[in-house]
Structure formats: structure tokens, C-alpha cells
Amino acid sequence: MDVLGLGADPVATDALVCSAKGCRSDARWGLLWNNPKLHAPARRKVWLACDDHREHLEQFLGARGFWKQTVGVDDLEHV
Ligand SMILES: [Zn+2]
């Protein structure tokens, strides 16, 4: 159930680890993004981020025009 209507891909609750390379910290944020060349406009891919990597990952996606929104990890749809 996508209660927020974010259209984000569900994330596994046993894998809430930061998406930054080499980082094994618990994720606290979900970065929602979309690559218009690959994904339907309403699709949202999710990267997870810890506090240390949230800004870095947002900038990475933002520089490519992919970043849409950052939400708390508790607001993501879990499977
Ligand atoms: Zn991290």
C-alpha cells in the first residue's frame, strides 16, 4: 500500500542500509529519484541514506536532474 502516493519502489525492511558505496550505516532517509530516460514519469526509485551521506547523494542525483524528494525512512513503503 502506497499511503503517501509517492510512487516509490518498496524497500525491504531487513535491508535499510545506506546506499552510499562502502557505507554500512543504518539508513534514516529515502531519496526518491527518477531518470526520465529509463523510468516512467511517475516511477520513483529509492536510494537509502544515513545522516552522513544524505547530502552527498542528494547532490549526486540533483546534479543529474534525477532527484525528486527526500523522505524519512519510516515514510517509505516497506515489504
Ligand atoms: Zn552512509
- The rounded distance between the terminal residues' Cα atoms is 10 Å
Q: Unreliable stretches, pLDDT < 50, 5 or more residues?
A: none
Radius of gyration: 12 Å
> How large is the count of helical segments?
1
Q: Could you say which small molecules are bound to this protein? A: zinc ion
Cross-sheet strand order for the largest sheet: 2-1-3
Q: What structural class should be given to the helix and strand makeup?
A: alpha+beta
Task: Name the average pLDDT.
Answer: 89
How much of the sequence lies in strands comes to 15-25%
Q: Characterize the main sheet.
A: 3 strands, antiparallel
Number of domains: 1
What characteristic shape results from the CA principal axes? globular
H/E element string? EEHE
Helical percentage: 10-25%
Strand runs, count: 3
What are the SSEs and their pairings?
Blueprint: E1 29-33, E2 45-49, H1 54-63, E3 67-72
Antiparallel strand pairs: 1-2, 1-3
The structure holds zinc ion.
Q: How would you characterize this protein structure?
A:
There is one protein chain. It is globular and about 30 Å long. The chain has one domain (13-75). By secondary structure, it is α+β, with helices and mostly antiparallel strands. The longest helix is centred in the last third of the chain and has 10 residues, at 54-63. It has one helix at residues 54-63; strands spanning 29-33, 45-49, 67-72. The protein starts with 28 loop residues before the first strand and ends in a 7-residue tail after the last strand. Strands 2-1-3 form a three-stranded antiparallel sheet, covered by helices on one side. The chain contains one helix and three strands; from the N terminus they run ββαβ. The relative contact order is 0.32. Helices cover 13% and strands 20% of the residues. Residues 18, 20, 23, 25, 50, 52-53 line the site of zinc ion. It comes from Isoptericola chiayiensis. This is Acetone carboxylase.
